[in-house]
Design brief:
15 strands, alpha/beta, single chain, about 400 residues, four-stranded parallel β-sheet, disordered N terminus
Length: about 400
């Protein structure tokens, strides 16, 4: 009798043990690869920090976040994504920080049928929405949206000629393409184009050529603290025209590194950067302030970054999509769930996040409109909302 009872207990215990991996298998896993070291670290660190603020339970499912650093290296970003999908069996990937790495990850997303939400800006990550890019989404504003805001502001400033210095990678090339089109549409002529690398320590030659062209304004197309290099060099060489930056410069670390040389520069940015200064009827003000308050409560006053906001928004998109995907009956950890999650992300509607209102579709995997941009000027080392330049 005792032997029979023992055998039954053993069978039950074995059966329970077999169910435990299945229970763990059922939780939603979110892979994250960001550039918390390397040239884009000033962007990637607030993105990494933001992961700790994301919900750990959604629609009754536990959510696990697995975070890796790709050191601003596209090769490592691709390797990280493969590891997250094949070794960790994640359902969706957020990342990466810089455009070259994100563009490289798109093929892996398609190959493994895993949705990815990039926190990099280049429109090539998601456009056109065909082939591998049906698996790719992104939360930062498209360069085109921001280039249009810049060009309209330049007209109001009386700018007729423009100089350009940008990264010699996908980010810089994408911005040159979009800014050229936006400038031409407003009757502005680009008279000088220079490039530099993210790790460069000198841009003297490029700056001298820009100044020699005598443009009314100059746009620096970079991201993170490396944008301070041409900004400071132009100021120190006596350039008196109007300085513009992209939304890649919307980072408090840029102000710290650039110091007084950043005063009077203009840039388009997500509403999060100046959330307190927005009118109360702005649709993203409350969401932006919610994220800002949570982030600064944990990481200190003034630590907020629009780049962390892009990851927060990616988390919001996933949070909205998970219940929709679960309704299909697909289980986390399966190909079917990844497909259902991709479809749910594509159906995101009227989601007011920290940087804009998202409306995804089969033709638009960025989903942002003019509500995702504001014009900002640096005044006495502080971001200052410029509604008259909208």
């Amino acid at each position: 009798m005792k032997r029979k009872q023992f055998n039954r207990f053993s069978i039950l215990a074995g059966a329970l043990a077999l169910t435990l991996p299945l229970a763990a298998f059922a939780q939603v896993k979110v892979g994250v690869t960001v550039s918390s070291t390397g040239p884009a670290a000033s962007l990637g660190i607030p993105e990494r920090n933001t992961v700790s603020l994301l919900p750990t339970e959604i629609a009754g499912q536990k959510v696990e976040y697995i975070v890796l650093d790709d050191a601003t290296d596209p090769t490592i970003a691709v390797r990280n994504m493969r590891k997250l999908v094949t070794d960790d069996n994640v359902d969706v990937v957020i990342g990466t920080t810089a455009s070259p790495g994100s563009i490289a990850m798109v093929d892996v997303a398609a190959e493994t049928q895993t949705p990815m939400i990039s926190v990099a800006a280049n429109a090539r990550i998601v456009e056109p929405v065909e082939g591998p890019r049906i698996w790719a989404f992104k939360t930062p504003q498209n360069d085109r949206l921001m280039a249009d805001a810049l060009a309209k502001s330049m007209v109001k400033h009386g700018v007729k000629t423009l100089g350009f210095i940008g990264y010699n990678d996908a980010y810089g090339e994408g911005w040159l393409e979009e800014m050229t089109a936006a400038a031409e549409a407003q009757g502005i002529k680009i008279v000088a184009v220079e490039r530099y690398a993210r790790p460069d320590t000198s841009v003297t030659g490029q700056v001298l050529k820009l100044i020699a062209a005598k443009p009314d304004g100059i746009l620096v197309a970079g991201s993170g603290t490396p944008v301070a290099l041409p900004q400071s060099e132009l100021k120190n060489r006596g350039y008196k025209g109007i300085m513009y930056q992209t939304h890649g410069a919307a980072n408090n670390d840029v102000l710290r590194v650039c110091g007084k040389d950043c005063n009077d520069m203009y840039l388009p940015a997500g509403p999060l950067l100046v959330a307190e200064q927005l009118p109360d009827d702005n649709p993203v003000k409350q969401t932006a302030l919610d994220y800002k308050n949570k982030y600064e409560a944990k990481y200190g006053p003034g630590s907020i970054s629009t780049f962390g906001g892009h990851l927060w928004d990616a988390g919001m998109v996933i949070e909205a999509a998970i219940p929709v995907a679960l309704e299909t009956g697909a289980k986390p950890g399966t190909v079917e769930f990844r497909k259902a999650l991709r479809d749910a992300i594509e159906q995101t509607k009227d989601l007011a996040a920290s940087q804009g209102v998202f409306n995804m579709s089969a033709d638009d995997h960025a989903g942002l409109d003019e509500r995702a941009r504001v014009m900002v000027k640096v005044v006495d080392g502080k971001w200052t909302y410029q509604p008259d330049l909208q």
